[in-house]
Amino acid sequence: MNFSGFLHNDDDDKSSGGGNHFSSEAAAMPGGLVKSIFSSPRLSLGLQTNAENNRGEMGRTGESFEVSITRRSPESRSGSDNADAFSGDDDIDASNRPLKKKKRYHRHTPQQIQELESVFKECPHPDEKQRLHLSRRLNLDSRQVKFWFQNRRTQMKTQIERHENSLLRHENDKLRAENMSVREAMTNPMCGHCGGSAVLGEISIEEHHLRIENSRLKYELDRLCALAGRFINRFEDDATGSHQSPNSTLKLGVGSKNGYGGGGGGFNLVPPGYEISSSPFFPGLEAPVNRTGTDVATGLDQKSLYLELALSAMGELVKMAQTSEPLWIPSSKGKQEMLNREEYDKSFTRCLGDKPDGFVSEASKEVGMVTINSLALVETLMDSERWAEMFPCMIARNSTSEIISSGMGGTRNGALHLMQAELQLLSPLVPVRQVTFLRFCKQLAEGVWAVVDVSVDRISDGASSSLSCRRLPSGCLVQDMHNGCSKVTWVDHTEYDESNIHHLYRPLVSSGLGFGSKRWISALQRQCESLTILMSSTLPNRNKTTPISSIGKKSMLKLAQRMTENFCRGVCASSSQKWSRLEVGNIDEDVRIMTRKNVDDPGEPPGILLSAATSVWVPVSPRRLFDFLRDELMRSEWDILSNGGPVQEIACIAKGQDHSNSVSLLRSTAINANQSSMLILQETSIDASGAIVVYAPVDIPAMHSVMNGADSACVALLPSGFAILPDGQGLEETGSLLTVAFQILVNSLPTAKLNVESIETVNNLISCTVQKIRAALRCDNK
């Protein structure tokens, strides 16, 4: 039974005064009578019939109850016990004073309680009309209903408060535990890297650094075990059945014949007893950070595929580079070797799968001596910027997408990069080859290195569906020689879509002279020779007419390098420059005309730029055609910039032992008073794979500043010139493929519109130049 409802003033019941009824009447009675009503600590539901005989005991009981009633939980009683109104048959003592008012207690029936509970759920605060209706229906007094609802609300409120108190106590305990942990950590700090004490005063600085290094090495070891452990069994199986090639001088190897593997049982890439899991074979592998389990698994799986593909490609490259016949057989078109496809298919499993439909294969191998040591060449190949500078006429654009491994021991041994590149052949009739590939570097022996490329378009995310070229294992082996030079064996193996190539260039490309190993080796030899001269204390100057300081020569060479790079990008429409091709009805389909705007590049004049290029076959050898175009005495035969007058070479800087490789400064002399003299900067170079002649008119004051050592980056120029390649038809060089290209400024306002007259002008310029060259070489009748 709960009396808290009688003591509680509920807001919605203040008007009725029912909540104070009992307490007000009780206050009017003597204290002993009030106490005597409650004769049992259990609040008996029956009437006390012998109150007078037990008055003393009841008084004591009442006193104890009066103290404890306020402490008892309201909901500890049923809330279903109610007292009736005072009876009229009260006992009266001898002095006519009422001794005690008897009160009957009623426990509600289960049916009544159920009904009251259901109404309480719908309306915890019934008004007087609802209480009256409910009392009639349940055969209860209106006050009984009122008091029941008061007690029930009090009970609910107490339960909620108790639950909230329990939550607060739990939170308090949690905060206390955290506080104790923080206090304990503050009294004994630990290093998160090495696990030792974080108080440096207790240990030496050297010991602290050693602990950090030890922790890092343990982390790398665990990571390498997870990544490289999957390869151990495969390599151990290969080692048991490997044999050394009779044509090999080094114990190199390939992966097994599997989905990514290279050769069959020829070599062993990993020495016996060498365990990848216990050695930093691939240091620098990036571990996934803050990624979900699925992402981590995906990243590790893809890098594992990259590692396996790189290892297999390395093995295939080494075997192809060191094996001669029957894998490589002499070509009927010259000294160059050609790949024996039947022997290749028996020796290797295609690491990139079957050849796509419509693709053709191109494979070549070339050996040459270069004036650079192996370490310097490896560093150049693994650095994307230096690689592009080494092969400016072959690489239109390149970038390193991801460094999967940076190498070990501060060297490039084990370095693995994911790269992208645009490879070009200087002709508008041959599209740029866009490739995404892995570049893997490995030291095979002391002074012997290998660098291999292999396409990853089939396994990389977002691979293009319009794939037109892919590189099979290609690259070079570099071996130091005693004279400071290196012996380089270059292998190039590619599959490409031949339908995109003009018929004039198909023989050249298929023979490997367009993108193959001969061109890579020739360009490398010429560039290394130029770098050797440039790094010397004095630069040779053949013509003493205009003396140039050493710093002026270097500035002039830097300007010529930028001129040549822009010329190549304009011919091949590289994505590094935003050229837009123009389609004009009256222009020959073999002539490509493009335009772009220059706004803020100080190395070019501002305004609308126009580029035009075409390629033709000329029935003369590449060397004869090159000598004709670079000869300043013959320049008036074809160059409109000479204005028909003589051209004089006033300065020349040699870039190699062959004086044909040089940078020259020419002066065109005016033949009448209405014309002015001008300066022309020209670079010429030739090697076994082809030749270029690039030139551009330059401002006279700006060129004088460059020759005095000023920065050439702000000298504006637009290059034009020629690219000469052999036609690839046979042993005798009876024909050349000549590319003619011009870049001109058609309007100095970038916002101006390009008109048809400008397009026709540049088209006529190309046609007239080609006709003059053919006429000067007497090629019209051939």
Automatic annotation (TrEMBL):
PROSITE patterns recorded: HOMEOBOX_1 (PS00027), HOMEOBOX_2 (PS50071), START (PS50848)
Highest taxon above the source species: Eukaryota
GO molecular function terms attached to this record: DNA binding; DNA-binding transcription factor activity, RNA polymerase II-specific; lipid binding
Region (Disordered): 1-31, 49-109
Record domain Homeobox: where: 99-159
Biased composition (Basic residues): 98-109
The START domain, residue ranges: 299-533
Pfam families: Homeodomain (PF00046), PDF2_C (PF25797), START (PF01852)
Keywords, comma-separated and alphabetical: Coiled coil, DNA-binding, Homeobox, Nucleus, Transcription, Transcription regulation
Entry coiled-coil feature ranges: 153-180
Subcellular location: Nucleus
One GO cellular component term noted in the UniProt record for this chain: nucleus
DNA-binding region per Swiss-Prot/TrEMBL record: 101-160
UniProt xrefs under SUPFAM superfamilies: Bet v1-like (SSF55961), Homeodomain-like (SSF46689)
Family the UniProt entry places it in: Belongs to the HD-ZIP homeobox family. Class IV subfamily.
Family matches, as PANTHER family: BNAC04G04470D PROTEIN, HOMEOBOX-LEUCINE ZIPPER PROTEIN MERISTEM L1
Name of this chain's protein: Homeobox-leucine zipper protein HDG1
Organism listed in the record: Noccaea caerulescens (Alpine penny-cress)
